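Lecture notes, unit on protein representations.

Consider one protein chain, 169 amino acids long.
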Amino acid sequence: MQIQNCTTADVDKIFKLYEDARALQLSRKTVVWPYFEKQFIEKEIQNKQQWKILIDGEIACNWSISFIDQEIWEERERGDAIYIHRIATNRNFRGNNFVVKIVDWAKNFAVENNRKYVRLDTLGNNTRLIEHYTKSGFTFLGIVQLENTKSLPLHYQQEPNCCLFEIEI
């Protein structure tokens, strides 16, 4: 298993992971990710914000990161965290608990980048994800109602309840 930045050669594979994630979200009747613009993903790749877990040369899992997340974290945003977004697991590798591996990686990445927290969010009152993230080491901080969603992807504008999670380094 290797963790590394995605490259532009991965764009189609990332979109396939997102397509599979949307299908899973629909089947579980949870908030469904929108279709992301190719330019948006390519920009994240150029900015080294897209990451992947490779197993035998295949992308087993993908996620993105950011260092600022003002619209979601509001007054808690102080430039001291790494934010994880859009964890998508290849259907052939589901059940491998990649969130724990991402958490281990993110803790080290946060230290290397002088950050005090690893954070993530999910929309709706998704009790299954709340349990999964807390078992993976995150503290569930509660559900907030987002107010400044105009610059966020569409699913944040459609679902007002946002679950916040954090690990203090």
